[in-house]
Amino acid sequence: MRVALHEVSKGRALPTTSLEFHSGAVRYALAETEQRPTVLGLIASGRMKPETGHVSIDGATDAKALRRTVALVDAPDVSDPHPDITLAGVVGEELMFAGRPATPLHARRWLTGLGYDDIAAAPIGTVDPAARVRILCELAVLREGVEAIVLVSPDRHGGRPDGWWRIAGEFADRGIAMLVILGGSAAVALERMQELGAINASGPIEPLALPQEDVEDAAEEDVR
Questions:
Q1: pTM for the complete prediction?
Q2: Is 63 exposed, middle or buried (CB count within 10 Å of its CB: 0-12, 13-18, 19+)?
Q3: Residue 2 confidence (pLDDT)
Q4: Phi and psi of 51, rounded to 5°?
């Protein structure tokens, strides 16, 4: 799956931006100011219509498919959990949204499976940034049809960026399309850690590479 933002903008909140992310890879996009990361995340996940440009999924403009397929994770004031809610409470709510049993016992069992049972009662605002990213992303992919994650501003929680970047890479290795929206300091830090292979998602959007059979079909249509 490939998601591409073609010269999208949203007034002063987001200047003209083009970027692309796809299945099996993790990419980052630079977005600073208070509103910009969340606005970019909303547009990239099909939850906000840009004023200019458009967003495509596998070459088609389909906001409904985009919303169904792309999970928006930890976006400030939109999808981030309240910092005072316990981790088990956050898990229980997300399990419910995923259509799974969501009692406190089920939440604790789920956390135990990830190895985080010891912090189930802790407010999520106190959870280590890397652990927070892993837990919220694992919850996101429980939802049916999710093939991509837009993770918003994990650097705002502090900690070393290589921790949550490696976790994002692990999700990409599982076939998930990962876009991480972050600030300039985190981007510089990632680029200096060359072994992480951090790649910026922004830039000119290349034409979608069609499978050979689609190319042949298109050629036949032209002949007709």
A1: 0.89
A2: middle
A3: 96
A4: -75, -35
